[in-house]
Structure formats: structure tokens, C-alpha cells
Amino acid sequence: SGVGKAVARLFLDAGVKVVIAGRDAEKLKTTAAELAAGENLHTHPVNVADPAGCQALIDAATKRFGRVDVL
Q: How far apart are CA 22 and CA 45, in angstroms?
């Protein structure tokens, strides 16, 4: 929501593949639906206070899109 959603929209509008993350999976689904970016958008629930969760986020992004350019 807010700034994160706005930044995701800017990247998506520029043709960048984006992963959005947050603690609430339902909010992520809602945001993804609002962004309506299809295959260029992936959601990943994570608590960034958990190092293993952060690594899983990076792994999921890499698996989905092949690489991470900006984190």
C-alpha cells in the first residue's frame, strides 16, 4: 500500500518485472489485483525481521524472474 504500491506501479509501467512482499498474504493478493500486472508481478508473503524469510523471498524472485536487479 502507499509508497510501496506506487513504486511497484512505476516499475511495472516501465516494463520491469516486480515482486511485492509483505506480512499479510490477503493484502498482497488485493494489491496484486489492483496493479493488474499479470506475469510481470509476483507476490511473496514475508516478515522481513526473519532472515530465512528474506532469503526465501530472494530465492522466489530469482526462481520466478531469473535474477534480482533491485532489492
A: 5
